[in-house]
From TrEMBL:
Its EC number is 5.1.3.11. GO terms for molecular function: cellobiose epimerase activity. Catalyzes the reversible epimerization of cellobiose to 4-O-beta-D-glucopyranosyl-D-mannose (Glc-Man). Pfam families: GlcNAc_2-epim. It catalyses: D-cellobiose = beta-D-glucosyl-(1->4)-D-mannopyranose. It comes from Natronobacillus azotifigens. GO terms for biological process: carbohydrate metabolic process. This is Cellobiose 2-epimerase. PANTHER family: N-ACYLGLUCOSAMINE-2-EPIMERASE (PTHR15108).
Amino acid sequence: MMNLMRLKEDIEKELIEGILPYWANKTIDKENGGFYGYITNDEEILLESEKGCILNSRILWTFSKAFRTYENKEYSEIAKHAYQFLKESFTDEQYKGLYWMVDSEGQPTVTKKHVYNQSFGIYGLSEYYLATGDKEALDLAKELFELIEKHAYDNVHGGYFEAFTREWKVEEDLRLSDKDLNYPKSMNTHLHIMEAYTNLYRAWKDEALKEKLVSLINISIDKIIDNNRFQFKLFFDEAWNSKSEIISYGHDIEGSWLLFEAAEVAGDEQLIAKVKNITINMADKVYEDGFDDDGSILNEADQTSIVDADKVWWVQAEGMVGFFNAFEITKDPKYLKKVFGLWSFLNDYMIDHQNGEWYWKVAKNRKVYENMPKVEPWKCPYHNSRFCFELIERIKKQY
């Protein structure tokens, strides 16, 4: 029996008693500002670790959203702590924009301006404004939007270039991480610019911003999604020729609901109808090809077989939102079964019920990768807290 109210209660308990307290109690660096940059799987804090801007922005988003949802003063104080560190340590006063990385004391160590990073700044800042009404935060989000449009937009082929030097000159190394390919455009960056612009448009109903948001939705449809197989292509040259054969099931299911959300926030009925079909087709493709027999979503495939059968924390979280979104659109209970299956898998294998937070990933045999940290520049509370917020809100609407 699929009991949605019980599911909502269980998810809310995990959010309020598991995820948020972990980040509130274990990660705040009261001495140097911001948040510790690295905590091992066995809860050892590496005090000298560098601090990533993406992690800081995602914590800013998480606790802003938590305050907006529950009006708990502790959450607003943590959001403010994240906001102040972003302003004081990650913001480049001379050339504008956000640095990639600072040391444990808040001094810049990697000063490149990656557009993905600027986008998460916008995402966190706009949520902080929506939660607190702090206009200075909204102004900084607008400034980042204008910087992206000024420096990163491709006036010839459309879309956005990946990365720049501190001075906003073309960067040779465009990658987000070592596993990425070094090409001038990527699915991942475009997905998260769209996500950021969606949230900024909630806070700031600007026509130029709306045009750019609609343009990003159309770029996703026309250039990034393979419209024969309804899966994202991952890397591109300047003219949008695909340079990768890898399929990322997590990005496909995450993208399916973020695209639909973007179209709804933009408020264009024709676009919503167009995106609705694509959303379901993308969810169906993950439904058909992306699941292991234990109810979890596999990580990556190529055109012929699974190439990475690990189960990664954020993929399962986004899967729950994506399939609940597909259920809301179609009312087909098959998607809801996947949501319950994912929740069961998360409870049994991914959530650390003893120490809080989730493990980074487990292997196909469901053994935890104990060498992977609980906290580092990419291991954050945004995917798993957002899944909780989304499902709590969406289930409430069903009743």
